[in-house]
Design brief:
The chain has six helices and six strands. The protein is α/β, with parallel strands linked by helices. Strand 2, helix 2 and strand 3 form a beta-alpha-beta unit. It starts with a strand and ends in a 9-residue tail after the last strand. One of its GO terms (molecular function) is oxidoreductase activity. Keywords: Oxidoreductase.
């Protein structure tokens, strides 16, 4: 069964899709209808043989439903030597832990809150569930320049830089290949101080 990447025609999801296909895998990518052009452009770039774009509506409820339905499909896979049939990695945001941006923070916290209960619920299926709470990426703040941008970078503990799509994919790869990692939320944020938000 090919990996399913939900909500990621560009940036993090797009990078993951490219890496999977370039390494000989196949990908099904779901994203909102508003991202249809970007998804189809990625499909044309990667080829229809190894990549399929499906326009959908993605939100917190959708994250739950995608996980639930994906686990049901993964349960039909043949188990590996560890009894594993699949891996789910959800993406959340660092703002879930410390922010006054209530609606966004709550939606991200909901994704984090699903992680451990889902990992326990799916144990008999042989499906692991982990989440990555990302920091900030350049595509999220394209309007910041000069002194304003440098001030933003000063919120990072170290390194003084924004996240990159490659570091996100690298962590996804490590989660997939580490069979003992389950029910965890990993912060990939450069130890950013989000108390300003």
């Amino acid at each position: 069964m090919p990996p399913l990447i939900a909500s990621g025609s560009r940036n993090l999801g797009g990078t993951c899709a490219r890496n999977v296909v370039e390494r000989g895998g196949k990908v099904v990518l779901c994203d909102s209808v508003s991202m249809k052009d970007a998804g189809e452009e990625l499909q044309q770039s990667l080829g229809q043989k190894d990549f399929m774009f499906v326009p959908t509506d993605t939100n917190v409820t959708s994250v739950f439903n995608v996980c639930r339905l994906s686990a049901e499909l993964m349960a039909k896979n043949s188990p590996d030597s560890n009894g594993q049939r699949g891996v789910i990695i959800n993406k959340s945001h660092r703002l879930a832990f410390n922010s006054s941006l209530a609606p966004y923070s709550m939606s991200q916290a909901a994704i984090i809150g699903m992680t451990l209960p889902m990992a326990r619920d799916f144990k008999d299926l042989g499906v692991r569930v982990n989440s990555i709470a990302t920091g900030f990426y350049r595509y999220q703040i394209p309007f910041m320049k000069g002194a304003q941008f440098q001030k933003f970078l000063s919120m990072m503990a170290f390194p003084y830089s924004l996240g990159s799509e490659d570091t996100f994919y690298h962590l996804c790869e490590k989660i997939v290949t580490n069979p003992y990692m389950n029910g965890e939320v990993v912060k990939l944020d450069g130890a950013v101080n989000t108390s300003f938000f």
